[in-house]
Amino acid sequence: MTSTQSKWLEAELKFDSRVVGKHEVVMTRGQGSVVWDESGRSYIDCVAGYGVANIGHCHPDVVKAIRDQAERLLVMPQSLPNDKRAEFLTELVGVTPAGLDRVFLCNSGTEAMEAAKKFAITATGRKRFVSMKRGFSGRSLGALAFTWEPKYREPFGEAVDNRNVDFVTYGNIEELRAVITDETAAVILEPVQGEGGVRPASPEFIQEARRLTQEKGALLILDEIQTGFCRTGKMFAAEHYGVVPDGMTLAKAMAGGVPIGAFVMTADVADRMPAGGHGGTFGGNPLAMAAGVAAIRAMKREGMAEQAREKGAYFMEKLRGIQSPKIREVRGLGLMIGVELKEKSAPYIHALEHEEGVLTLQATPLVVRFLPPVTISREQIDTVVAAFERVLNSVNPRAERQAELAAAQKEQTQTE
């Protein structure tokens, strides 16, 4: 690590809240599917900002749109109509499933989920929800009620009110049938669970959720925050299942890297929210809108849904070709891929970064998650797969853990 790098890392560690665990590296630049650290080392990025950089880092169209808009107008509240906002809404509704033509604009996926919760209550007059085990819906107090993992909820106790939330096993149709009632406001689910281990839903499960919600007068809300905007090989994952929900939560890749969020819904759902029932200062700001217009147009023009479909199939084929007893399963949809191991994935993720220059994510303790930009090349995919195979063969988690324990014991002895 260089002295300059140490300075920046030291400053971030000193003043940051420490809520987020930090890697010992300072990233400074990105282009396409590659990022560089302060020392100039390159990494193939299969994190993509947790699924944000679908169209690649610093896509030239998005960079130009941001630059041009920054010279014209940065902020304008939604109470005052704006040309770029109108242009963005037109582009967005042009790619969403038919009937989802009303949009609440915000700044993140969690904000989109908060909006969805409120719109569902006012649309149905009900307060009970159905969410999924292993599902992830955000970490604000409202959205956290729908997030399954106890470690996210327990530190806040009763402040996270999920007494009106029924959790069902993802994919279990009988459980779903048992909990959707005349009191259910909405069923909320991810077409592919990301944090939950990269688990695509079966068509039967999604389709039955649609049928049951219509039968009971509840809403079906699909969380497309990570799956949306070409990630799974379609513009939205809902298209794989042949269903149109009552609403979708969107964020992440929608503006090519600029913070943005939206809840798209039917007119019937939108019209039942009282005027002033929800809002936000920065939602729909012209800068994010300009980036969003450029990003969506690039996705369409460059055929990124088709790219994700073809490259995802190639990536999974290559991963399944790895002969390793440590691999339990390779699964995914498009370029949303998870490799479940028979042991903890963290040592392999660490080795990929530090030894191979490949950035990946964890999804549950056993899963290595690959979320590369759609712009990743086949040659880069080959490089990532070869690197993954090398670390599977070279890393011995048990020996590493024993070494860590021995070092800790030695340090304690020296201290004493």
UniProtKB/TrEMBL annotation:
Primary role: Catalyzes the transfer of the amino group of L-glutamate to [LysW]-aminoadipate 6-semialdehyde, generating [LysW]-gamma-L-lysine.
EC number of the protein: 2.6.1.118
Substrates-to-products reaction catalysed: [amino-group carrier protein]-C-terminal-gamma-(L-lysyl)-L-glutamate + 2-oxoglutarate = [amino-group carrier protein]-C-terminal-N-(1-carboxy-5-oxopentan-1-yl)-L-glutamine + L-glutamate
Gene3D superfamilies, A to Z: Aspartate Aminotransferase, domain 1, Type I PLP-dependent aspartate aminotransferase-like (Major domain)
Binding site for substrate: R139
Location relative to the cell: Cytoplasm
Ranges in coiled-coil conformation: none
NCBIfam families in the record: argD
One MF term in the entry's GO annotations: pyridoxal phosphate binding
Chain residues that bind pyridoxal 5'-phosphate: G109, T110, F136, D223, E224, I225, Q226, T281
Organism (species): Deinococcus soli
Comment on bound cofactor: Binds 1 pyridoxal phosphate per subunit.
Protein name per Swiss-Prot or TrEMBL: [LysW]-aminoadipate semialdehyde transaminase
GO process terms (BP): L-arginine biosynthetic process; lysine biosynthetic process via aminoadipic acid
Pathway: Amino-acid biosynthesis; L-lysine biosynthesis via AAA pathway; L-lysine from L-alpha-aminoadipate (Thermus route): step 4/5
Gene: lysJ
PANTHER family per the UniProt record, alphabetical: ACETYLORNITHINE AMINOTRANSFERASE, MITOCHONDRIAL, AMINOTRANSFERASE CLASS III
Positions of post-translational N6-(pyridoxal phosphate)lysine modification: K252
Main location: cytoplasm
Family the entry assigns: Belongs to the class-III pyridoxal-phosphate-dependent aminotransferase family. LysJ subfamily.
Cofactor section: pyridoxal 5'-phosphate
UniProt keyword DNA-binding present: no
Keyword Transport included in the entry's annotation: no
HAMAP family, per database record: LysJ_aminotrans_3 (MF_02084)
Self-association state and partner proteins as the record states: Homodimer.
GO cellular component: cytoplasm
